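User: Could you write out the 3D structure of this protein bound to NAP? I've included everything you need below.
Assistant: Certainly. Input first, then the structure.
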Amino acid sequence: MTSLMNRQYFLASRPVGVPDASNVPFRDVPVSDPAEGEVVLRNQYISLDPAIRGWMGDDPNYIEPIAIGDAVRSSVIGRVVKSASPAFAVGDVALSVGAWEAYTTAPAAMLNKLDESAGVPLSLFLGVLGPTGLTGYFGLLDVGRPQQGETVLVSAAAGAVGSVVGQIAKMQGCRVVGIAGAEDKCRWLREELGFDAAFNYKTCSNYVAAIRETCPDGVDVYFDNVGGAILDAALLCLNKYARIAVCGWISTYNESHAPGPDNLWQLVAESVTMQGFTVIDYMDRFPEGVAQLAEWVMAGKLQFREEMVDGLDNILPTFLRLFDGSNQGKLLIRIPE
Ligand SMILES: NC(=O)c1ccc[n+]([C@@H]2O[C@H](COP(=O)([O-])OP(=O)(O)OC[C@H]3O[C@@H](n4cnc5c(N)ncnc54)[C@H](OP(=O)(O)O)[C@@H]3O)[C@@H](O)[C@H]2O)c1
């Protein structure tokens, strides 16, 4: 045993509605020495993703729900402080599935070693060069399949995934329209990311009218990050053979019984393809995606925002900001060394 102590936020009960500290309290436990083939990471960045809210429930999901009593699962980047694997030395940096915790112990085979020598800020491997950017890249290009001249509509457009989607759609020669929940977010989309139009759904009384006004030629690809009433409105604005890439339904994640969309008949009326996906579906193509995203970032063609909040003890209130829209881009917890 070592003398290291690990602060962990764990799932004590499944939240109904917005999670609170009674659902996700913390405990301090000793860090065990790694078993053969394992390493111990001292976490530096913890990714905060809306999907974590889904894993706190027990509905069927694309990965197992978090078990009651387990630390809250999250992607992490950390530095190796103990290694029982020849593949990792103390001081190496790796990305891993970890948890809301200061130290993650994981099998070396599950870690992705990161190269610090290129000088790329490590946090980007959880954001624009990591699962977030890859979700936008594969979701738009493979599921949305935009063609030059088509109109692409994106919800949660100023968020981590949405902002990547819109910029890639612009690079494909599309008209791009974003939906976001604040004026400053809409301004950022139009003035800095090159979106053709954006509107604020929080001050909009008629989503269908707003979509029709900003998408005068109709919608060919709807990249859906939110579900709910915005999806319902988008369904009424689709062109023949439109594609809906269902990336996430954040408007429903804190609801016990979210109503389904009313306007699904439009799939028949307009011969629409509606396809859900997860970034995990594309794991074997991650190197291709990271290389392309990195090239665009280096060339200044792909901008991103990330917001880092210091301190593991801020993790739950920071996580909840994903659901009130106060995050500005990719949201991370940083645990200073
Ligand atoms: N399929 C996959 O593999 C995959 C992978 C990663 C993420 N996702 C999904 O992608 C979506 C975006 O995730 P992200 O990590 O990029 O987060 P994000 O967009 O950076 O942050 C979440 C944003 O969602 C918006 N939002 C929150 N509640 C909303 C509501 N009730 N109605 C409309 N918008 C709402 C807020 O922006 P506003 O200010 O605009 O309201 C908030 O900033 C989520 O649905 C997530 O589950 C899917």
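The two ends are 22 Å apart (CA to CA).
User: Perfect, thank you.
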